[in-house]
Structures are given as structure tokens and as C-alpha cells.
Design brief:
The structure holds 2 protein chains of 2 kinds. By secondary structure, chain A is α+β, with helices and mostly antiparallel strands. Chain A has 2 helices and 4 strands; from the N terminus they run βαββαβ. Chain A starts with a strand and ends in a 19-residue tail after the last strand. The relative contact order of chain A is 0.33. The chains are: A alpha+beta, B alpha/beta.
């Protein structure tokens, strides 16, 4: 069975920049100068899956979701650029 | 080169009649040709001419796979690109060639409806197509209607086109699903640029071998281009692979041109010394990081200001955002305003740093590719006019004597 990688996907039309996702998942999501999310490239590492699910759940406009992609179809996918998790995060 | 799409009566004579068209090109090929037409188009290598350059045959096959006989063909004649005129020229002069392509496409993908989606401001184009539909025999199983597209840059974006036909709202929608999966009325929809359809109509008649008789090293065939800021501006048909220098000479480009804008506002600037050896071949250009796009070639004269010309385009692009996605609304506006500040000579080094950072951050963060196109253009400007941007950002003023009129 193909391994599924989880990717964060944002519905850019729905997203209104509440910024909650970046608070809950700063390793993978930062905010631009106007408060809209910038998602790190690559799949969500297993160690952050729980945080990612929480970020998805808390989005007030349901713009953030996780998308499963079979690994075999994305051979060139580069690994995630994970930022250090800060205290209390 | 012998023109293909533009062969026949003089363009100045307006729309070719059905009688003339039929005498010149004969009737449409029958069942046997149509059955293999997707494959013939794939073999021809024909790429879509709306700007994205997706293989036409593969698109037809994708819609055919899903249609169940209930697909829709959207003939895309919403030419939002300000520097392009080739689509409206083709519609206004060779409407039957486009309708031939649309009718064949409808048959091949299994569609019972053709929507002629034509820019509201392209008056002659819409009238020519409307008259052409009345002039020719149309299969009874096929409905053809004309929809006047909004006069916005994004009107021709495929999800926006489908959205407008369905609801009157011409803003792009979140994809997937893409129109070939779920388009007009929820049905699989082939959205195809008018020039692509016209090429398909000729390939259906003469074959992929004929199509490939002329062309460039990597991409074969001919293409319509719109040449601007030259002595003899306008639309012309070139053999793909033609040297840019040849087109420049033929149209009377300024001898002192410092740069050329290729591919329109979704394309990019190329410095004159690099442009000298460039051939107009979409695949070759893409490999070199250049865009053929919708075939726009616009020169910037030696006394123009690249910063000002780039700034004007960014202001236009920010104004043409569909205003749905935050990064595009705020990011493009900030980039446009800051680039304008730089162009005015009141900018600082920090402004240059900010537009560079914003443009890196913006890529891929819209529902459609409008922000990507805009920052791609900016990137090319920052590269090609690096010295000029630096001068403007450090209070050394503008070297240009005019105000960058080209683009």
C-alpha cells in the first residue's frame, strides 16, 4: 500500500488572515506582513501531525486542511523546512 | 513564411465569409479523422495559445474521457492582456476557422454546447463570430451561444470564465476541480483559446505532419504574435523558432531598444543583448526561463525607464486582482505602491529590499496564478533593470530621458 504524506493546503479565497494556524503551528506556518499564512514547503512531519490537526480544527473559516498525497506520485518532493518550535508552542 | 491562420483575404477586409472560407479550405473532415483527432493533435505538438501552453490534444482527451456526451466547449476569446491583440484580430477576420475548431472539438470531446466567450470590448470580434454562426450550417445537436466576457485581465482565466458563464461573477474559483473535470453547469468543460482552435481546424484537414513542416527546434508550427512599440506595430503570424532579431527588423523595432517584454504581463523582461540571440520557441524559451506566453513582443526604447515601465505594469496588475485572496490583495498593492515610489525617485534601499522579499513570498499564494504572473514580471524587471532600480533606490535619479512608454 502506498504511503500517504500529509500536506497543508489553504483555500486562499476563504482565508481571512485570522493567524490562529501560525500560533498553533509556527514550525510550518508563518505570517506575511498582512497576517496571511505562508506554509513551509513539503509534507507535514509525523512529529507535528497532532499540532497540524489542531491548527486545521481551529481555523474559523475552514480554509486550512490536510491533504493526503501518495508518496510514490511525488518523488521529487523536498523535505519540509521545519523551524524550531519555541517554548510554549 | 507562408501564413496559415492568416492566409486568405486581406485582414483589412474584415471577416472572411463562409463561402470564401469553404472555397479556400474545403469542408470539415469526417468521422475517420475526428475519431483520431486528439491523437493527431498530440502528435502535432500543438500547445495552447492562451498563455499557459498546455498541450491541446491532451486537454481534448482529458475532457473526452469524462464527458459522457455532456461536455461543454468554451471558446476563449477574452483577451485581457493589454498588449495583445492577436485573438481579437483572428476572431474579427477568420471567425469560421475558429468555429471549425470549436465544432470539431465539440464532436471529439462529446459536447452538445459551445459557448463563444468573447471580450465585451472586442466589438468587431463578437460581431464577426455572431454573423459567422448564422452563415454556416450548424449540427442540430449543437447549441452555440455568445457570452460577452467582462473587460478584466482575469476574465480569460479558465475558472473565471466558467464562473462567469454560470453565475455572472467573473472571478476565479478555487481549484481543483478544474474546468475539464467540473466546469459549466458542473459538466466537463474544454476551455480553449481561439487561436488554438483555429490551428486545430487546419491540423484536422492537413494532418500533424503538415503542421510540423515549419517550426522551431523544440516546438513546431506557426504562431500569432502581437508586436508593440515599433514602427509597424500589430499582429503577425510567425514560424515558431523565428529569431526575435528578425521580427524586430521586420516590424521596425527601435535600434537602441534596451529591453523587450516577452509574453505580456504574465511574461517578463529580457535585456536587449540577451534578446539578440533569442528564438521565439515556447519550449526553448521556457528552458531559458523566458515566456512565450500569449505571443506579446513589446520593445522598450533606449531612452525609456525600465523602473517606470515595470511600475506601471505592477500598478495595473494590482488593480486587476480579483480581490479575493489576502496575499494578492495586500501583497500586490504594496508591491505596486512601493515600486511606484521607487520609480518616482523618492524610494530608498529598504523599498527595494521589501519588494524583493514580498515578491518571493507571494508566489503560489493565490487561488489563481495572478500573483505568480505579476511577481514573475517584477522579478524579471529587478534583474534586467538592476542598475536602474539601484539608482532609483539610492537617490541617484533616473538615467532615462523619457518615461518608459513601451509597456
Amino acid at each position: 500500500m502506498a504511503v500517504l504524506d500529509q500536506f497543508l493546503a489553504i483555500d486562499r479565497i476563504r482565508c481571512d488572515g485570522s493567524g490562529l494556524c501560525a500560533e498553533l503551528l509556527p514550525e510550518l506556518i508563518e505570517l506575511d506582513d498582512w497576517g496571511y499564512p505562508i506554509v513551509a514547503a513539503g509534507s507535514v512531519p509525523p512529529v507535528l501531525m497532532e499540532h497540524a490537526r489542531r491548527a486545521v480544527a481551529v481555523c474559523p473559516v475552514l480554509a486550512l486542511r490536510l491533504r493526503a498525497v501518495p508518496r510514490a506520485t511525488m518523488p521529487s518532493q523536498t523535505g519540509p523546512r521545519v523551524r524550531a518550535r519555541t517554548a510554549g508552542g | 513564411m507562408q501564413p496559415r491562420l492568416l492566409a486568405g483575404p486581406l485582414l483589412a477586409d474584415g471577416a472572411e465569409s463562409f463561402a470564401s472560407h469553404r472555397t479556400r479550405l474545403g469542408s470539415l473532415p469526417g468521422k475517420a479523422v475526428r475519431a483520431g483527432l486528439s491523437d493527431t493533435l498530440i502528435a502535432s505538438g500543438l500547445l495552447g495559445r492562451g498563455g499557459a501552453g498546455f498541450p491541446v490534444g491532451r486537454k481534448w482527451a482529458s475532457v473526452a474521457e469524462r464527458s459522457g456526451g455532456a461536455a461543454v466547449v468554451l471558446v476563449n476569446g477574452a483577451e485581457g492582456e493589454p498588449l495583445s491583440a492577436k485573438d481579437r484580430t483572428l476572431m474579427a477576420t477568420r471567425p469560421h476557422l475558429i468555429l471549425d475548431g470549436a465544432e470539431l472539438a465539440a464532436d471529439v470531446v462529446g459536447a452538445d454546447r459551445i459557448v463563444l466567450y468573447v471580450g465585451r470590448e472586442h466589438g468587431a470580434a463578437g460581431r464577426a463570430l455572431e454573423r459567422a454562426v448564422r452563415e454556416r450550417p450548424v449540427p442540430k445537436s449543437l447549441s452555440i451561444d455568445l457570452v460577452a466576457a467582462p473587460t478584466t485581465y482575469l476574465a480569460g482565466e479558465e475558472s473565471a470564465a466558467v464562473h462567469f458563464v454560470d453565475t455572472g461573477d467573473g472571478r476565479p474559483t478555487t481549484t481543483p476541480p478544474r474546468p475539464y473535470e467540473r466546469g459549466i453547469g458542473g459538466r466537463p468543460t474544454l476551455v480553449q483559446n481561439v487561436e488554438s482552435l483555429a490551428h486545430a481546424a487546419l491540423i484536422a484537414r492537413y494532418g500533424d505532419g503538415w503542421y510540423r513542416e515549419v517550426g522551431g527546434d523544440q516546438t513546431r508550427g506557426t504562431a500569432l504574435v502581437t508586436v508593440g512599440a515599433v514602427a509597424r506595430p500589430g499582429v503577425t503570424e510567425i514560424a515558431i523558432g523565428a529569431p526575435l532579431a528578425e521580427l524586430a527588423e521586420h516590424t521596425g523595432a527601435p535600434a537602441d531598444a534596451q529591453a523587450v517584454l516577452l509574453g505580456g504581463y504574465f511574461g517578463g523582461w529580457v535585456a536587449a543583448d540577451e534578446a539578440r540571440d533569442l528564438v521565439l520557441d515556447p519550449a526553448t524559451m521556457r528552458a531559458a526561463g523566458k515566456a512565450f506566453g500569449c505571443g506579446v513582443v513589446a520593445f522598450l526604447a533606449g531612452d525609456g525607464c525600465g523602473v517606470t515601465a515595470t511600475s506601471r505594469i505592477m500598478t495595473y496588475m494590482a488593480g486587476q486582482s480579483a480581490a479575493q485572496c489576502g496575499p494578492c490583495v495586500f501583497g500586490l498593492r504594496a508591491i505596486a505602491d512601493t515600486t511606484a515610489t521607487l520609480a518616482s525617485g523618492r524610494g530608498r534601499a529598504s523599498d527595494l529590499e521589501r519588494i524583493t522579499r514580498w515578491s518571493e513570498q507571494l508566489r503560489g499564494r493565490g487561488a489563481c496564478r495572478h500573483p505568480d504572473g505579476a511577481v514573475g514580471l517584477l522579478d524579471s524587471g529587478l534583474r534586467v533593470f538592476a542598475d536602474e532600480f539601484a539608482r532609483h533606490a539610492t537617490g541617484r535619479g533616473c538615467r532615462a530621458t523619457s518615461r518608459g512608454r513601451a509597456a
